[in-house]
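Example record for the data management plan.
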Amino acid sequence: MDSLTEMTSANDFRTPPRILIPKLARSRDQWKAKATARKHQYRKEKIHSRDLQHSRQRWKDRALAAEQKLQELQQQLQHAEANRAQARSAIAQLQDSKKT
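Corresponding structural encoding:
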């Protein structure tokens, strides 16, 4: 365990530092770029998900409002048809009473 915690010196590597250091730096830079790209993609997807959620909720609200409006109009239609039937029966009674 002590060997894992100790710092390795430049003498422990067989590759010369002039070759090793640029490769390690390039590897670090690629890792950072990859992590940054993933972070940006995550944020982008999170915003997209939020926007979809709001959009779906808005459409759901609109659909429920339209359904409620339809029910109200159907009730108005039934009420108007009932009034019309009542008016026709009243007209028929008046016409019958006129004939007699």
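Summary line stored alongside the record: Helices lie at 2-5, 17-99.
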